């Protein structure tokens, strides 16, 4: 088992969310005109009176919070990814259900970070409304983050009892880590032997 294979589900979901997010944004940019952040000149009506496809942008986070703070928000994204990597063992990222939630979150974070770095704003296009009330437009990356956080909360409130599949996976991880550690110890031992004096008796005679 390679170091990356145990995070296969997380990496697959993150890549899927990222690709879907960037592909849909590219389609929107090539399909609809753009005349400002909040007032799309045209839209594609998907469900009359409820759901449209638009092209708007956001220089902040969700619901336009912290608007105009592109680079601080980008730095927060990098920090979040770094913390997830650093605390991956404490977060139990080897468990499938945890990989499910964090895969969606990571894919969403990277998707919006690419927008902020590339065009200094985030492209939103999913527009839900009811009557005169319009829910803030969002994108696939936002959806991944929201669903991922919701799943993590649900999993946190569930019983701590582990399924047979999770127990088996943990046992496999333990065997893999033990083999890896023993290999490191063997390499260290070989290195010590190579650095040892070739003829210690002669050195004692000289002394």
Automatic annotation (TrEMBL):
- Membrane-spanning segments: 69-86, 98-114, 134-155
Compartment annotation: Cell membrane
Compositional bias, Acidic residues, is annotated for 182-193
Listed GO molecular functions?
aspartic-type endopeptidase activity
Q: Name one GO biological process term.
A: proteolysis
According to UniProt, the reaction catalysed is: Release of signal peptides from bacterial membrane prolipoproteins. Hydrolyzes -Xaa-Yaa-Zaa-|-(S,diacylglyceryl)Cys-, in which Xaa is hydrophobic (preferably Leu), and Yaa (Ala or Ser) and Zaa (Gly or Ala) have small, neutral side chains
EC category name: hydrolase
EC number(s) recorded for this UniProt protein: 3.4.23.36
Stretch list, region Disordered: 176-207
Q: Give membrane topology per the record.
A: Multi-pass membrane protein
Catalytic residue list = 124, 142
Q: Which UniProt keywords apply?
A: Aspartyl protease, Cell membrane, Hydrolase, Membrane, Protease, Transmembrane, Transmembrane helix
Pathway listed for it is: Protein modification; lipoprotein biosynthesis (signal peptide cleavage)
Q: Which GO terms describe its cellular component?
A: plasma membrane
Q: What does this protein do?
A: This protein specifically catalyzes the removal of signal peptides from prolipoproteins.
HAMAP family tied to this protein: LspA (MF_00161)
Recorded protein name is Lipoprotein signal peptidase
Q: Which organism is it from?
A: Pelagicoccus albus
């Amino acid at each position: 088992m390679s170091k990356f294979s145990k995070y296969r589900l997380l990496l697959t979901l993150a890549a899927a969310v990222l690709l879907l997010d960037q592909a849909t944004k590219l389609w929107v940019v090539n399909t609809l005109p753009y005349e400002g952040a909040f007032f799309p000149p045209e839209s594609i009506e998907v469900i009359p009176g409820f759901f449209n496809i638009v092209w708007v942008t956001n220089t902040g986070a969700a619901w336009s919070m912290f608007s105009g703070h592109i680079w601080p928000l980008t730095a927060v994204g990098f920090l979040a990814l770094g913390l997830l990597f650093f605390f991956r063992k404490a977060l139990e990222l080897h468990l499938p259900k945890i990989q499910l939630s964090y895969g969606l979150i990571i894919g969403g974070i990277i998707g919006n970070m690419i927008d902020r770095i590339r065009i200094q704003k985030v492209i939103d296009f999913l527009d839900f409304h009811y009557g005169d009330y319009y829910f803030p437009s969002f994108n696939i990356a936002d959806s991944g983050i929201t669903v991922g956080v919701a799943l993590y909360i649900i999993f946190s409130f569930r019983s701590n009892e582990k399924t047979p599949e999770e127990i088996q996976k943990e046992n496999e991880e333990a065997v893999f880590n033990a083999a890896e550690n023993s290999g490191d110890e063997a390499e260290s031992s070989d290195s010590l032997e190579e650095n040892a004096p070739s003829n210690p008796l002669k050195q004692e005679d000289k002394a």
